[in-house]
Amino acid sequence: MGIPSAVLASFAIAQCICGRAPLATPGDPCDPEEYPDPCALGDPNMECMGNGRCECMDGYADDAGGCKVEVGGDCFETECVSNADCIGIYPPFCECQEGFIEDVSTGLCKTPVEGECTVAEECVSHAACIDSECVCNRGFQDYGNGLCEVMTFDWPWQYTFPPFFTIQPNAATREKQLDAWRHLVLDYCRHQKIYLLDVNEALSSPLFQNRELNRKLGFEGVSVVLDGLQKTGNIEWIDKQKRRCYVYWKTPEEWGKLIYKWVQDKGLTNSVCTLFELAQGDDTAGEEFHGLHNDVLIKALKTLEARRQAEIIAEEGVKFF
């Protein structure tokens, strides 16, 4: 009596597996036409893709050379990625442990920006471990969610020049330096749509601190820069302690003219608009003043009132003339 063909096939596969050393891991080259799938032999949650590489299936992430359930995935039968726990019952799912966040580009649980680290691999994507802290690489920025996202802001050449972060004693050099800082602050705030600047928060932001150079403009230097911006009418202090200020890359008068031009173009003279409609409404989406801080918006509308082109109604609406 002969050996069943199914047994022979299993034996043949077993021989192939024994002869394949080591088994495939994510990223290894493979032949999509090969059977059985060489990637699946290495990990049942991995397959050979059309690009000729072994990749984790949807819902799984490459974690230390194996495919594990990514954050939010069903972990009923498969282990979660590192730094995640399988919680819940129907169905159970993977959730990052305290102190870690989902790195959306990898599906892994990583240390967020400003979290403690020993090596860069512990941090979210596009971050380095500097002085035991996760810091976004140049060209990326944390927008408040602990991740490093692409930053398209074009830093001036001075930003990579260490002396730029020390107020220079020579009068002529100092004047050029402060002018460069003035343009940088206004360009940065315009790009980030910062209408109200908190000095304490700004001190640790990329605006005044270049972590790659390990250089920052100190409190006294920032005060000198902001005082210069006040003299040119580009900032207005909110409190006597000079902790918070409005930033005017466009003055209230310029904002007012921009808004009134839109009103005329839309045929809205002799009409009433709410402040919300002006700053957040769908009709102004795409306009430069869309998203304008409410305080700055009111200041802009008051310049139109002074020219008898508008009347503010209880600081909630405005009628244009």
Automatic annotation (TrEMBL):
<keyword id="KW-0732">Signal</keyword>
<dbReference type="Pfam" id="PF05871">
    <property type="entry name" value="ESCRT-II"/>
</dbReference>
<comment type="similarity">
    <text>Belongs to the VPS25 family.</text>
</comment>
<dbReference type="GO" id="GO:0043328">
    <property type="term" value="P:protein transport to vacuole involved in ubiquitin-dependent protein catabolic process via the multivesicular body sorting pathway"/>
</dbReference>
<keyword id="KW-0963">Cytoplasm</keyword>
<dbReference type="GO" id="GO:0016236">
    <property type="term" value="P:macroautophagy"/>
</dbReference>
<dbReference type="InterPro" id="IPR014041">
    <property type="entry name" value="ESCRT-II_cplx_Vps25-sub_N"/>
</dbReference>
<dbReference type="InterPro" id="IPR008570">
    <property type="entry name" value="ESCRT-II_cplx_Vps25-sub"/>
</dbReference>
<dbReference type="InterPro" id="IPR036390">
    <property type="entry name" value="WH_DNA-bd_sf"/>
</dbReference>
<feature type="domain" description="EGF-like">
    <location>
        <begin position="29"/>
        <end position="68"/>
    </location>
</feature>
<dbReference type="InterPro" id="IPR036388">
    <property type="entry name" value="WH-like_DNA-bd_sf"/>
</dbReference>
<dbReference type="GO" id="GO:0000814">
    <property type="term" value="C:ESCRT II complex"/>
</dbReference>
<keyword id="KW-0813">Transport</keyword>
<dbReference type="GO" id="GO:0042803">
    <property type="term" value="F:protein homodimerization activity"/>
</dbReference>
<feature type="domain" description="EGF-like">
    <location>
        <begin position="116"/>
        <end position="149"/>
    </location>
</feature>
<dbReference type="InterPro" id="IPR000742">
    <property type="entry name" value="EGF"/>
</dbReference>
<feature type="signal peptide">
    <location>
        <begin position="1"/>
        <end position="19"/>
    </location>
</feature>
<feature type="domain" description="EGF-like">
    <location>
        <begin position="74"/>
        <end position="110"/>
    </location>
</feature>
<dbReference type="GO" id="GO:0005198">
    <property type="term" value="F:structural molecule activity"/>
</dbReference>
<keyword id="KW-0653">Protein transport</keyword>
<protein>
    <recommendedName>
        <fullName>Vacuolar protein-sorting-associated protein 25</fullName>
    </recommendedName>
</protein>
